Amino acid sequence: MTLTPQPSDKFTFGLWTVGNPGRDPFGEPTRKALEPTYTVEKLAALGAYGVSLHDNDLVPLGASLGERGRIVADFKGALDNTGLSVTMATTNLFTDPVFKDGAFTSADARVRAFALQKTMQAMDLGAELGAPTYVFWGGREGAEVDAGGNTVDALAHFREALNFLCEYSQSQGYGFRFALEPKPNEPRGDLYLPTVGSALGFISTLEKPEHFGVNPEFAHDTMAGLSFPHALAQAIDAGKLFHVDLNDQKPGRFDQDLRFGAENLKGAFFTVKLLEDSGYSGPRHFDAHALRTEDEAGVWDFAEGCMKTYLILKKKARQFNEDREIQELIAAYKVRDERLEGLSKTFSRENAEQLKDTRFDLEALRSRGPGLERLDQLTVELLMGVR
Ligand SMILES: [Mn+2]
Question: What is the pLDDT of residues 79-128, one digit of tens each?
């Protein structure tokens, strides 16, 4: 298996990721902005499959129709020349100060209506570029203070907006699959729908939940001290993994968006293993950026690093699945009992009665060691390359 990325690996990057100029709340940009057409050429040369974009990553806010047409035509030309696809589109509903107190969830009806207008225009752009998936990351959908009494209203407004936009997509024949991207905080003090679980719960309240899934992000769960592989597993279990944002993060920090695998190698390994084992066929999308210290060469090192680490971990996941000792330990860990599994799988009065009459050897259950120390050490050795 080669460690050189191929389009068939389905690696994708947001224009805003490699295009991140290194601005932070305390400092000015450290790099020049990259032209979208140049970004497409560079990513294609590195073996990427596609790009994703916010409306304003490509078309600046306030551009005339003529300017928009020229920019989109140039961009399409770069896509055609390189064979790259646009795999996901989204709306920037966070940079403009108009969204300082929310977009879809703003307490101001005029802001909510403008957010719908801007999103419909961004969906038109995404459809024109052939994006199959549309992501909603509510960057400003949250609050610092709850004194305005908007917390319940905000969810109702959010629901109305998503229902409206789903109908818009269908009436236009766009057929987008929508993915909600949860995040606990930043840039707002507290964001609504902070976790994968809250997004999944919210989706079930929408008019057409079948068109909505989630776009979990490694850094977002990690910021809150949660396990990303567990969040990912819940999305897979619900059949709602529509897209995924890969990066890395130290827990308890600001949103670092580090290179995939840069910090938590075990978390990255189990993320890749889950994606590969589950049969997820969507883009492996990197939503991260190079360190602010870097120049443009560092940006491409960052992009290459994300993909290479994924491929190494994919190889390791295969090795894990083929490692006889590891698989024997897993088989021993997952204790089977045909009779009890038969009784507990589905309820019947008879099964319930038999279960109530069953005597369990609790001393044996209490004293049994499941062998996780050995199994985890073998995993670590495998990741360190000595297995
Ligand atoms: Mn993201």
Answer: 999 999 999 999 999 999 999 999 999 999 999 999 999 999 999 999 99
* Residue 1, domain member (yes or no): no
- Quick one: 84 and 104 in the same domain? yes
User: Do 174 and 245 belong to one domain?
Assistant: yes
Residue 310 lies in a domain: yes
pLDDT (0 to 100) of residue 2: 84
**What is the predicted pLDDT for the residue at 308?**
98
Q: Do 203 and 343 have their domain in common?
A: no
Q: Is residue 2 part of a domain?
A: no
Query: Are 55 and 156 contained in the same domain?
Result: yes
Query: Active-site residue among 9, 55, 57, 221?
Result: 57
Is 0.85 surpassed by the pTM of this model? yes
* Helical spans, DSSP H, in the chain: 15-18, 36-46, 55-58, 65-82, 109-128, 151-171, 196-203, 218-223, 228-237, 265-278, 296-322, 324-333, 338-345, 349-357, 362-367, 372-383
Ranges of residues in the chain whose predicted pLDDT is under 50:
none
Q: Are residues 164 and 250 in the same domain?
A: yes
Catalytic residue flag (residue 243):
no
Tell me, what's the pLDDT at 8? 98
* Separation of alpha carbons 181 and 219, rounded Å: 12
Q: What are the structure tokens assigned to 109, written together? A: 């009806």
CA of 255 to the centre of ligand 1 (A): 10
| Domain boundaries, position 373 | 324-383
Answer yes or no: 57 catalytic: yes
